[in-house]
Fold these 4 entries.
Entry 1:
Amino acid sequence: MSNFNKVVVFNQAIGNEAGDKQNIDWDLLTREADMIQSEVDELRKAIKNKDANGVRDALCDIHVFAYGTHHKMGYNADADMNIVIDALYSRFCMIPEDLQATIEHHKQRGVDSVTIHGKYPFAYIKSAGDYPDAPTGKFLKSVNYCEPEFNE
């Protein structure tokens, strides 16, 4: 059972049924966002205090609230994460031709100095100079990058 499904079971056990995708309760989502922000604040406090257990707890609580929010909207967080992760991986250059096309693409955008990192299928480039939209060290997306598309 995935972590999302475990959070769904927890939510159902306390009376939080799946939301209706066609009739999202935006006020409820606002309260959920407030809870996530509270956990982010706890995360920052734990980091400031160099409290590894506090960081771990806060990160997990953020996941729980985020998964719960997906559930309360009526969406499957596992399916959404797969879409987002696929898009994330599309930032890499899988073959040499992708890498060369990506370098050329960014060169045409004015970023003519890059460094190459990783190994195929996870090769990527970073800006090697300070450019308006690409400061030194910025990860530059592959020409094959695809934004996440949620079809539902």
Entry 2:
Amino acid sequence: MLHEIIIAGFGGQGVLSMGQLMAHAGMMEGRHVAWIPSYGPEMRGGTANCGVTISDSPISCPVVTNPTCAIVLNNPSLVKFAPLVKPGGLLLVDGTLVDEKSERTDITAYYIPASQIADELGNARIANIVLLGAFITLTGALQPESVLAALKKVLPERRHHLIPLNEKALQAGVDYIRRVVAQC
């Protein structure tokens, strides 16, 4: 099993923390993982992305250049990273914030209203976790229990009161994608 993921959006959307969360969850499951962040000097509001690799075998190169999955939270990230996804790969898009569509027919794309779902749960900043729930459901790359346990490692202790909300967001992503897949 090898998942090479690019997560991209604006700084402040939880792109880097989502990658850290995936890497920690993978480690908890005994997998080989790599996480490499990339962001501009402006951070919040600037562009940010990270590459995450989750594998059952050692990782020879931690740099993700042709991902098996791209998770994008803004239009510039869709334009930049959708073309890099390997044929047969997966594209997950926050369909609330991204109004463009990928023209690729050799990948599977899901436009998930993650920010809308997050707003309905009471906090727009958890859209990344909604997308993570969709990702783990579609790929089986990580177990939800590992992701939730990793939240305690990734979130600073002063933010641990947000763990129940993140749990709801993860489940909302799982439930949304299950409904979509069941309709296909």
Entry 3:
Amino acid sequence: MEPIIIEGTPKTPTVHFDSAEGVFKLEGRSIPENSVEFYKPLVDWLDNYKESPLPKTVVEVKLEYFNTSSSKCILDVFKKLEVIHKAKNDVEIKWYYEEDDEDMLEAGEDYESIIRVPFEMIEIVE
């Protein structure tokens, strides 16, 4: 499978989805003009990936901010990961948040309560 590698901008996150590595990254800010358009290739890619996932898939989410429309799209990405996990594959989501960023911690906890995939909350201390 071809990896998806998107350089981040002030409005869109850096994306690194590579099936050869099994570690997928979403990093930066997510306030694109059209969230659905931005995230659709990721959701489609995961649809293909779920056909033959690696034994372990780790998703590292290091978002400093995302808007409401992005949050729905991120949930769609997580739902695809949940399908992979339910098929007896090892999937883990590592949710990073800044030391004083209660909002990002709560957002991660909200996703964790919705999605049946193991989450690890990781505090970034500077």
Entry 4:
Amino acid sequence: MTPESVRLGQRATDKDDAIRQCGALLVALGAASQEYADALFDREKQVSTFLGEGVAIPHGTNESRVHIKKTALGFIQFPDGVDWAGNTVNVCIPIASNSDEHVDILAALAEVLMDPEKAEKLRSSGSVDEVLGLLGSIGSED
């Protein structure tokens, strides 16, 4: 992840607006086309991308992978929260991945979220460097 992939202190009117912002970030990063961004909605209709601890991981369908240009993660923080079908989401981590590497990313992210202190920092941090540091620890041994 790069500083350009992190957006702190954002607002979303609802879940669809948050998903729209996630797709736009992946497009802006050059990771995917608008077709992939649109497919984030298709995935959400199949199964909720809410992960827990105030985090959702919007990503496209398997069929939409043809619209991915490179693997990328984004990070969008919504301090006021977004209603996600009855759950509150404060962080969206949109994913563009052409292979099954996103499975490893999700498993590593789940490890970070199991630490309540780290999860809270992701939800409330005002520092891009702190967010990158927390996510940079994904998969590393502590």
